[in-house]
Amino acid sequence: MTNEPVAQENPTRAFYDRLSKRYDALADAWEHGSREKGVEALAIGPGEEVLEIGYGTGHALEQLARAKARVVGIELSEGMRSVAAGRIAGSGLEARIQMDLGDARALPYEDDRFDAVFMSFTLELFADAEIQQVLSEAKRVLRAGGKLGIVALAEKHPPNLMSEIYVWLHEHFPHLVDCRPIDTVGHLRRAGFRIRETLVMSIWSLPVVSVVAMKPDGAWY
Ligand SMILES: C[S@@+](CC[C@H](N)C(=O)[O-])C[C@H]1O[C@@H](n2cnc3c(N)ncnc32)[C@H](O)[C@@H]1O
Fold first, then answer.
1. Which fold is adopted by the domain 11-214?
2. DSSP state of 205
3. How confident is the model at residue 8 (pLDDT cuts 50, 70, 90)?
4. How far is the CA of 24 from the centre of ligand 1 (A)?
5. CA 221 and chain centroid, separation
6. How confident is the model over 72-78, as a mean pLDDT?
7. Element (H, E) at 66
8. To which H or E segment does residue 147 belong?
9. Is the pTM of this model over 0.85?
10. Which atom of ligand 1 is nearest to the CA of 27?
11. Ligand 1: which atom is nearest the Cα of residue 122?
C-alpha cells in the first residue's frame, strides 16, 4: 500500500474521515445505481488494470474486482479507506484489490500504466482549475487508448428547482454539500480526451452523467 504523506489539516480529508462510518447510510442508497451503471459502461475486460480515484467506501472497487479486473484505488481519507477495507476483507477479492492513500492531484503512479481510470461523485468536489489538474494526472497514468469513466452530478439548462436548491446549498454550506453539478464533457474535452459514450441519469431529479472518454492513441478516426 502506498502511504503518501497527506496534509493533516486538509479539510476535505477531515470531512470524509468524520463522515466515513455513516457515508453509506447517508449517500449510498441513492448513488449506487448511477455508480454501478458507470462501472458497467467502462466494460472492463478480465485482467485489465484499473485505477479508481476517490474510492470512498469501496463499492466500485468490489464491482470492478468481480469483473476480474486488477484494481488499484487511491483515496484521501483514511476513514473511508478503513470502511472500504472492511467491505473487501473476507470477500475473496483481496488479491485483486490494492487500496492506497494519496491525492488525486498528484498520483503516485508511473505514466501510461492503467488500462482504465474510474471516478464517481468525486471530480465535482474540485474547483475548476483543480479538475484540469486531476484529469491531466488521470491522462498521464492511462495508457494510450485507455478509457476514463466519470460519474458526476451534471448541470441542468435551464436549472430545475432541485438543481437550484442544490447549487444554493453548495454555495452557502460548502462544508456540508461539497459537490456541485459540473460540465463533465466540457472538462474532459479541454483535458484532451475523446468522448466515447454519455448516459444521463437522475438522482432526486438532479441530473447525473456517466461519461466514458478515451486517451487519444494517435490513430485517425
Ligand atoms: C462523494 S465521495 C464518493 C466516494 C465513491 N467514489 C462513491 O461513489 O461512493 C468522494 C470521495 O473522494 C475522496 N477524495 C476527495 N478529495 C480527494 C483527493 N484529492 N484525492 C483522492 N481522493 C479524494 C473523498 O475522501 C471521498 O471518499
1. Rossmann fold (3.40.50)
2. T
3. low
4. 13
5. 28
6. 98
7. helix 59-66
8. strand 142-153
9. yes
10. 9
11. 10
**59 CA closest ligand 1 atom index:** 9
Residue 76 has a pLDDT of 97
- How remote is the CA of residue 76 from the centroid of ligand 1, in Å? 7
Distances (CA, A) of 137 to 53, 117, 163: 11, 10, 29
119 CA distance to ligand 1 centroid (A)? 8
Domain ranges of the chain: 11-214
Q: Which three cell numbers stand for residue 196?
A: 466515447
Ligand 1 site residues (CB inside 6 A) read 12, 16, 31, 35, 53-56, 59, 74-77, 80, 103-105, 120-122, 125
Question: Which of 28-32, 60-64, 160-164, 214-218 shows the highest mean pLDDT?
Answer: 60-64
CA–CA separation, 58 vs 62, rounded Å? 6
What is the C-alpha separation between 154 and 178, in angstroms, rounded?
A: 14
Q: How many CB atoms lie within 10 A of CB 26?
A: 10
- Strand-pairing partners, residue 92, are none
